[in-house]
Amino acid sequence: MSKKIIHNARIITMNPNLDIIPQGCILIENGKIRHIGRECPDDADAEYTDAEGMFVLPGFINTHTHVPMTMLRGYADDLPLHRWLQEHIFPAEARLVTPENVRIATRLAFIEMIKSGTTCFNDMYFFEDIIAEEAQKAGLRGVTGESLIDFPTASFQSVDEGLALSEKLIRKWQGSPLIHPSVCVHAPYTCSKDTLLRAKRLADKYGILLHIHLSETQQEVEELLATTRMRPATYLHAIGLLDQNVIAAHCVRLDSHETDLLSATRTAIAHCPKSNLKLASGIADTEAYRKAGITVGIGTDGTASNNTLDMVEEMRFAALLPKVVHNDPEAGNARHALQMATINGAKALGLEHLIGSIEIGKSADLILVHGDSSNMLPVYDEYSAVVYAMNSKNVRSSMVNGEWIMRNRMLCHLDKEDTLENIKRLAQIVKP
Q1: Using CA atoms, how far apart are residues 144 and 51, in angstroms rounded to an integer?
Q2: Rounded to the nearest 5°, which phi and psi values hold at 355?
Q3: 225: Cα separation from own chain's centroid
Q4: Mean pLDDT throughout 359-375?
Q5: Which has fewest Cβ within 10 Å: 147, 207, 364, 411?
Q6: What is each CA distance from 57 to 319, 410, 425, in whole angstroms?
Q7: Per-residue pLDDT averaged across 421-429, rounded?
């Protein structure tokens, strides 16, 4: 049906006023939110959903992923980043990253994402056109870009070929209601100045997002200081790459000057707390970044370094870690964490006009959370309940662009059993 009405809901809008509407109603028509309030329209042509006992909130926005790395979940754990990449992940990807394997691993990732409340993801990987196709089939919103890097990959053999592939992806998907193409360039330590600038020019040509890893480890900082005499963010600023259409993943090792540079250029950050902890990269000072006016979203990173795509867990870590960093229980509160997972994630991706909050005119990218479940009751504060008490199984239903992608924990467009059988077969090949 083109019209849907969700009623009897506790609506956590995440709008600028952070309004919460108890016993509220949402009218959705042609994928857009047309009405929000206590009064519920009477419309015989609409599909009604009774959300008694449910929170309705914007779907989670995962601002940094490597979706097909589900095939490498648990493959090489408990190692430092550069050794993990160079000795294990890059060689494994050279063997295993094929169009068919990417398709299988992507479906597995989308099952996990949908079941834990993600409605939009920002991805950097190879064979990204396949990921975009699978996202469209699953009904998920995706920001997708081919990962440019200065060595041959499974999907391209040279930077020229990679840039051509990126532009082809952009032309194919620009204007899609669900897929938002981007330009991805791996990192300043794996890409030359020429590659970085060519990627930025391509993103600017089409007015789209540029996605990059930045200042993830101390080793990265030391390498850039040795080769450029500048810290990573300072180097990127010097060559003109930091900008309002750029999202930088991790940003664990920014100093105060670099923080000011990101703030001044309106560069956004994708904070990946669990991956950074697992790889012992460090803890990004998101409280300092927030106070500097930087837009910070939350990302899971890939499942090879996290090992989940669960934004509920990620959001909780994002709320808790600033308290330890600053020795202050008031740092990193629940409201800030939920903003990072929703409206700030949308702003970081340049999609705040479309998603991230429940407001009239925006796309209906929503999740229904069982607020009356035993692990969440009693509810004295909705933000605290969602950030500190909720788990992924509390997500009961979700929709993107006004279409259900999960109802009562049942996936609408993905074959879970077939996907699990395929990933088990793939694991026999992956196994070292």
Answers
A1: 33
A2: -140, 180
A3: 30
A4: 98
A5: 207
A6: 18, 19, 37
A7: 93
Q: Which pLDDT score is estimated for 79?
A: 86
Q: Is the pLDDT of residue 197 over 90?
A: yes
- Residues 71 and 97: their CA atoms lie apart, in Å, by 9
Task: Return d(Cα 301, Cα 121) in angstroms, integer.
Answer: 10
Nearest residue to 304 via CA among 278, 330, 328, 331: 278
Segment 13-28, tens digit of pLDDT: 999 999 999 999 999 9
Which amino acid, residue 91? P
Q: Nearest Cα to 209, choosing from 298, 113, 122? A: 122
What is the percent of the chain where pLDDT is above 70?
A: 100
What SS3 state is found at 393? Answer: helix
**Cβ–Cβ < 8 Å for 139, 167:** no
Q: CATH number of the domain at 60-348, please?
A: 3.20.20.140
- Residue-wise pLDDT for 77-124, tens only, equals 988 888 888 898 888 888 899 999 999 999 999 999 999 999 999 999
Q: How many residues does the chain have?
A: 432
Residue 37: helix, strand or coil by DSSP? Answer: strand
DSSP codes of every residue in 310-328: -HHHHHHHHHHHHHHHTT-
Query: What six digits make up the tokens of 158?
Result: 């040279």
Contact criterion met (CB below 8 Å) for 25 and 36: yes
Span 319-336, pLDDT tens digits = 999 999 999 999 999 999
Which spans in 342-415 are helix H?
343-348, 382-384
Q: Which amino acid is at 251?
A: C
Domain residues of the chain, as ranges? 3-58+364-411, 60-348
Q: Which long-range contacts link 424-427 to residues 24+ away (Cβ below 8 Å)?
A: 426/71, 426/101, 426/104, 426/105, 427/71
